Structures are given as C-alpha cells and as structure tokens.
Amino acid sequence: MCKDRLISALSAAVPTTDCLGSGRWCVDVTTSHRLTIERDAVVDLLLTDSCSGAEGSVDIVVSPWARLRVVEVVSREGARNQLNIKLEEGAECRMTQVLTASCDSRVVASLDGRGARFELGGSFILTDDERGSVVVDVKHNVADCSSRTMFKGVASGSAVGKFSGLVYVAPDAQRTDSEQLSRNITLGSARIETLPQLEIYADDVKCSHGATVGQMDDEAVLYMRQRGLSLVTAKRLQIEGFVSDVVLHSAIEECRDVLLETLEHKLEKL
Amino acid sequence: MLKVENLHASVGDKEILKGINLEVKAGEVHAIMGPNGSGKSTLASVLAGNEKFTVTGGTVEYEGENLLELSIEERSRKGLFLGFQYPVEIPGVTMANFMKIAVNEQRKAQGLEPLTAAEYLKLMREKSAIVELDAKLTSRAVNEGFSGGEKKKNEIFQMAMLNPMLAILDETDSGLDIDALRIVATGVTRLKREDNATVVITHYQRLLDYIVPDYVHVLYKGRIIYTGDKSLALKLEKEGYDWLINDYKEE
User: Fold this and answer.
1) Contact A228 B102 (CB under 8 A)
2) Least CB–CB distance from B91: residue in A222, A226, A242
3) In terms of residue numbers, what domain contains A225?
4) What number of other Cβ atoms are within 10 A of residue A183's Cβ?
5) Which residue of A has its CA nearest to B164?
6) pLDDT value at residue A90
7) Closest in A227, A233, A244 to B76, CB measured
8) Per-residue pLDDT tens digits for A172-212
9) ipTM of the complex
10) How far is B40 from chain A (nearest CA, A)?
11) B163 lies within 8 A of chain A by CB
C-alpha cells in the first residue's frame, strides 16, 4: 500500500498536538484538522486518505518564515477534501498532489504575509467511469508574494475530469508574481474541462496562466513503435512522461519513488 | 535481404509511390536521391510500416518474409531501423529508459533474456562512444532540447544500440554542420558489416564521401528512374537532376 510505504519512507509520525515543529508528520485528510506550523519550522507533511467516500478538511497556518513541504495522495474512491493553507510573512509552502481515483479536491492557499511563496505541482489520472474535480484557489492578499501552480490531468475510458484554477490578486497586492498552468491529455471518449481564471485588482503584477487539453502525440507513438515498443507500451510511456515530472519534482524528494510507482500502477489501467 | 517489387502507396487519394523496384542485398549500401517531393521519405515510411500510408499494390519481401504484413514494431524487432528525418521529442521519457525498453523488446522477440542493469549500462557506454554522444544526453528526455546535430547523432546512437539488419536513414545528414556530418557518417560506417545493409536517403553528395554507396538510385515522381554507381551522385551534384528528368520524359 502506497500510504504505508510513504509513511515508512519518511518515518513520518502522527502528530499529537495541533502545533507542529520541525519534523515529518502524517495526517489523514478524511477527518478534519486545524494545524499550525511553528515559526521558522521546517516541516514535511504527508496527507493521505484512510477510507473511501469520507469528507474532511485540513486547515494549516504556516507561521512566519516557516517552510512547509506537503505531499498529498488521494487513491480511494469518492474522497472529498478541502485543504486551506494560510501563509504568513516569508512563509513558504511547496506541495505535490497525486490523485488517482474519483475525488473532489479543493486547495485554497491564502498568501497573507509579505514574501510568502506557494508552489503546487499536481496530477490527476482518471480511468473507466471515474469523476474527478480539482479546484485550486490562490489568493494573493498582500504585496510581494509569489505562486506557481502546474496541474496535469489524464483521463481515459469514459472518465470526466475538471480543473478549476483561480488566482486572485487583491488591490494592494502589488508585485505579485504568479503562474498557473493546466495541461491535460484525454484518451478514448474521456473528457477534461479546464477553467483557469485570473482575478486581478492590482496594477503592478506579473501573472500568467495557460491551459491545454490534447490527445496523444501520434508522431511520438510512431517513433517509439519504430524502435520496437508495442502500441500499448508507447502510449503508456508517453503518458508516464507527461505526468511524471510532477512527481520527479516532488516537494519531498524521498516520496518520489513511491509516487512514481503509484502513478505507474494507475497508468496500467488506462 | 529486401526485395521491393512494383510498390504503390498513397496517402488519402494521392498516389505517391508509383511502382518502386529495389533490391538490397546483405553487405550493400544504397543511396536514394531525387528532387523534393519525389517520394523518398514516403518510401522510407512505407518500408518502416507507417500506417498513414496505404500500400495499394506490389510486394515487399524482407528476409524471406512478407514485410507488409508486419506491424511497425514487429519490423523493428526483426532488425529494420528507420533513422527519422525529424526525430521526435518525447517529454518526460529519458533516453536511457526508452532505449532499455526498446533493446529488451528486441531481445524478447529473439527469445533472449533482458539485459541486466550493468550489461545495459555497458552497452550504452560503448554505443554512445561510436557517435561521440555526450553521456549526459542519455539521462535527458528523448530529443527534448537536443540541438539538430545531437538529434541526428542520437538517431545513430539508437541504431547502434539496436544493431539492425537493415537501416534506412532518411536525410540523416540534413541540417548538420561539417563536424557533426563527419561524426554521424563515420558512426554509420563503423556499424557496417558483411551481413547488414544500409539505405541512405540524401540530397547531398558530401554524405556519400563517407558512406560510400554501391548503388545510387534516383527517385522521381514515385519511381526509380535511374540507377548508377557512386559516380552518379557526383554527376548529380554538378549537373542537377534536369538531364535525367528530361531523358525520363522523352521515354
């Protein structure tokens, strides 16, 4: 089981208080939590789902100058969860999200202190008749913050995926630096809807966003087959290449191999 | 090794190959030249098994088998290699991983065990030296961010890894500077053996200074209109194709 392997890879512990100092922790997203990351702390946080169909929310306050690295894996059917991350002055959060089942996921990052940084790399892979919805809201409430969101989606069979991204820049949030990208591949009769949005009320900002929904690259498949790979292997390798960079840049490096295997395992079902 | 008889092929309604005859024996090097749009790349694609083209007539025999019945990957595993004119970028897939799968697919088809990690690394080191390919490139994504020269060297590196019986190189020399051309061409020459064969498609005689052909064919409007020895390439370089095309029209 991927969750147990991740926990042991990190030797993450279940926290006994809501106030987390430097260390590696594991929290179940199918129940609700309110956590505070202590000032200046360096925290690795593993978010996993322990049961199907549950609804949970995790609120995290990242105190000034703390650094939080989050890896979230949702692999059980029908999870609904919301993650609220509030970043104070100079705080940083890097997050990797891997969703491999029907789910309803919402991440809201509020950049509330100057110099705060938020980075999210995510991917969802949906097969058969799965339904997935991903929402990423990044709120630049004060000046001098930066955010990066890169979300990759793959859907096959008759799956339906949806990505909604919103970057909000408050009137005083000058010198905001934000980037949001949603890239998707659909196979068969699957559908992916992507809705990247920008809401900007400040005038000195750098914000970019982009979205693509495409099919497999036939030229690449042909190239791989000419080198002896079967059609199935070629397609899988291409999709793996497409989503794996999210995992290769995993916020917590030690999670990389387990996350890659999780992806590969899911990709076999495409 | 390869026997093409009266091969016709089209894309959509448009017939591109209009009766190709070509025989390639083990140990031979053939060059195919001809003006743009004459069907050279199409011939390469059809032989490799690209499904975009429909074979509408003729036969192709490869090592005693009906080549046209085999899928692209089966042809590859049986030792047919196509060097692409425009090698494709595959983001996120490392060269090393890609080639490992390719080499092992071929071994599987031959009833051999997959290579161990150590054997594979050794093979990769050996073969990348043939084309002076920077070892760092093998840990990068396939062709992604490679320069034009690196892409073509990478084609020959893959050819070396797969050790084909029949290599068809589609304009492997186009876009190369003199040094890269020498490296690529020398690489091809070093892979030459008595029991394999090479077909090079090219616009320029200069490649044939390195890879000396036994036969030079001129393809025009979907047919091979003339076959000569290596001196034909020199003549074409000087005089162009007009004299041949005019002769052909008069026939």
Assistant:
1) yes
2) A242
3) 2-267
4) 20
5) A227
6) 97
7) A227
8) 999 999 999 999 999 989 999 999 999 999 999 999 999 99
9) 0.95
10) 18
11) no
Q: Give CA separation, A218 vs A214, A225, B52, B90, B138, in Å.
A: 11, 10, 11, 11, 23
How many Å apart are CA B166 and CA B200, to the nearest integer? 11
Nearest CA in chain B to A244: B92
Structure tokens at B210: 């390195």
Q: Which two tokens stand for residue A216?
A: 């497999």
For A225, the closest chain B residue by CA position comes to B73
Q: How are beta strands B2-11 and B14-24 bridged, if at all?
A: antiparallel
Angle ∠(B81,B85,B88) on CA atoms, nearest 5: 85
Q: Could you say which residues from 99 to 128 on chain B have a Cβ atom under 8 Å away from some Cβ of chain A?
A: 99, 101-102, 105-106, 109
Q: Please, which residues have CB within 8 angstroms of residue B104's CB and are 6 or more apart in sequence?
A: B114, B115
Strand order in the sheet with B65-66: B14-24, B2-11, B54-62, B65-66
**Of residues A256, A247, A245, the one with CA closest to residue A10:** A256
B98 close to A (CB below 8 A): yes
CA–CA min distance A243, chain B (Å): 8
**Would you state the structure tokens that stand for residue B27, as one six-digit string?**
């140990």
Residues 180-239 of B with CB under 8 A from A: none
φ and ψ at residue B250, rounded to 5 degrees? -70, -25
Starting from the edge strand earliest in sequence, which strands make up the sheet with B166-170, in order? B80-83, B166-170, B197-201, B29-33, B215-220, B223-228
Q: Where are the alpha helices (DSSP H) in chain B?
A: 40-48, 72-77, 95-109, 117-130, 148-162, 178-190, 205-210, 230-239, 242-250
Q: Which residues of B touch A228 (CB under 8 A)?
A: 73, 76-77, 102, 105-106, 109, 162
B67 CB within 8 Å of a chain A CB:
no
The structural domain count of chain A equals 1
Instruction: Determine the distance in angstroms separating the CA of A239 from the nearest CA of chain B, rounded to an integer.
Output: 9
Query: Cβ of A1 under 8 Å from any chain B Cβ?
Result: no
Q: What amino acid occupies position A106? A: R
Q: What is the pLDDT of residues B170-186, one digit of tens each?
A: 999 888 888 889 999 99
Does the distance separating the beta carbons of A237 and B102 come in below 8 Å?
A: no
Q: How far apart are CA B62 and CA B20, in angstroms?
A: 15
CB under 8 Å to B86, separation ≥6 — which residues? none
CA-wise closest residue to A23 among A47, A41, A6, A4: A41
**Residue appearing with tokens 């087959």:** A225
Q: What percent of chain B has pLDDT over 90?
A: 74
Distance CA B177, CA B148 (A): 9
Nearest CA in chain A to B47: A226
Q: Per-residue pLDDT averaged across A57-80, rounded?
A: 93
